[in-house]
Amino acid sequence: MANNSSNGVHQTTTKSPPLPSPLRFSKFFQSNMRILVTGGAGFIGSHLVDRLMENEKNEVIVVDNYFTGSKDNLKKWIGHPRFELIRHDVTETLLVEVDRIYHLACPASPIFYKYNPVKTIKTNVIGTLNMLGLAKRVGASRILLTSTSEVYGDPLVHPQPESYWGNVNPIGVRSCYDEGKRVAETLMFDYHRQHGIEIRIARIFNTYGPRMNIDDGRVVSNFIAQALRDEPLTVQNPGTQTRSFCYVSDMVDGLIRLMEGEHTGPINIGNPGEFTMLELAETVKELINPGVEIKRVENTPDDPRQRKPDITKAKELLGWEPKIKLREGLPLMEEDFRLRLGAAKKN
Ligand SMILES: NC(=O)c1ccc[n+]([C@@H]2O[C@H](COP(=O)([O-])OP(=O)(O)OC[C@H]3O[C@@H](n4cnc5c(N)ncnc54)[C@H](O)[C@@H]3O)[C@@H](O)[C@H]2O)c1
Ligand SMILES: O=c1ccn([C@@H]2O[C@H](COP(=O)(O)OP(=O)(O)O[C@H]3OC[C@@H](O)[C@H](O)[C@H]3O)[C@@H](O)[C@H]2O)c(=O)[nH]1
């Protein structure tokens, strides 16, 4: 906690926030960990909720405005005594007594974050400010932000270590998201330095898996849905751009380790296996529908040309590395997409 300065200028308070409830000292109080997950109805958020709910000592509260998420992703928990779901937009203030905050709320697919860019910026900046204010006010012991590999922009250093400051266009069509997340990281560190808030920052690299929206627009979900619908796989030009894909269970494991560990981050969480988009299309074609066509289409502005995480820090500080290779993860996602699309496997 920061101190009042000796030069007479009042900087911050030294008073600790009160405990959420005096009942915590009562003999019969159940010392459950109350965890808030913003964006918990989304893809990564709902998998994180599943994992957190496995621990009987955890109570989980999800807040979500359902912009890209869905109650469907949480249906097995609705009505559970340790689970609560609140329709709420994080750009508005929120007051709930919680011990830990996983702050995920933000559209992640480029087509959705570009749909209403001003709202995306507000979600990243005001939403993060609101969650930090909440952490401060209720004395939450930790808050974790899901930042992104997009803070590196179109990276000139490859692979990307956390020490790289990035190459980001501040006025482009992706800026609402990548600059928004950069400000969110700044806010996290300012609250940490100024108010002593315990923070964690994960820089997430492209993640895929079951429960992604079928029409999410990101490349893995697009290619799988296209392969199952017998539609051409749309490789955006030039096709040589690379990404590194992490399976969602590995991602959730990394996020929990970061939250429970002793390091603020930022820490890259991602799978270093790097593929061109053409290679990804060829792999989906081979595994899911060998007869499908691969079609070249126009790209969008400022598409990063290469991306691969340096995960040295995650390995050393969290003892974390991904276990699931792309060729193992794709069939698991295919199974889920088949069920939702009603596409039976051909023999
Ligand atoms: N999936 C990835 O590859 C990836 C990569 C880097 C970073 N991330 C980050 O991880 C987080 C989750 O991503 P995801 O892939 O699960 O995306 P997602 O779109 O499936 O989930 C985001 C969730 O946030 C909710 N949301 C959006 N705006 C909100 C608002 N203003 N108030 C309340 N809820 C709101 C959505 O309804 C949705 O449920 C995001 O912060 C994203 O930036 C994801
Ligand atoms: O149908 C498609 C969709 C996308 N692509 C290409 O696939 C690559 C990846 O695109 P995606 O839309 O899946 O995701 P991006 O890597 O651009 O952004 C993602 O980065 C990390 C996170 O913060 C977000 O989940 C998202 O912003 C791009 O080069 C894009 O041009 C295709 O070739 N075909």
Explain what you see.
It is a single chain. α4 (175-195) links the parallel β5 (142-148) and β6. The protein starts with 32 loop residues before the first strand and ends in a 6-residue tail after the last helix. It has helices at 43-53, 110-113, 117-138, 175-195, 219-228, 248-260, 277-288, 312-318, 326-341, and strands at residues 33-38, 58-64, 83-87, 100-103, 142-148, 199-204, 207-208, 233-236, 242-244, 246-247, 267-269, 274-276, 294-297. α3 packs parallel to α4 and α7 crosses α9. The longest helix has 22 residues, at 117-138. It has a domain at 7-208 and 246-269: Rossmann fold. With 347 residues, it is an alpha/beta fold. The radius of gyration is 21 Å and the shape is globular. The site of uridine-5'-diphosphate-xylopyranose (UDX) has 17 residues, from α5 and β8. Uridine-5'-diphosphate-xylopyranose binds next to α5 and β8.
